[in-house]
Amino acid sequence: TVSVVDVPLLNSISAAARRRISQAAAQDLSNTSWAFAALLVLDRPLLAAIAAPASKKISDFGPHDISSTSWSFAKLPMHNTPCLFAIAAAARLRLS
Description:
globular; mainly alpha
């Protein structure tokens, strides 16, 4: 598989996403983190901006949102402990 990463485009997407992050739903947060992780693009400001509301809105996350977000943070060398703890707690609740 050949992958081409358009850095200026990703920077624009990141900036736009960070401006609107407070309005993002659980799926928006999950999809955005997944998209950057799938491209192996470590955008620390964006992931930090996603982690804060994701931790607060974790009860709104469905199983797919939980798995996609946890995969995204695991795939990239960006570990946000509060977000990962919130994801783990949500996953445990759903499994019990």
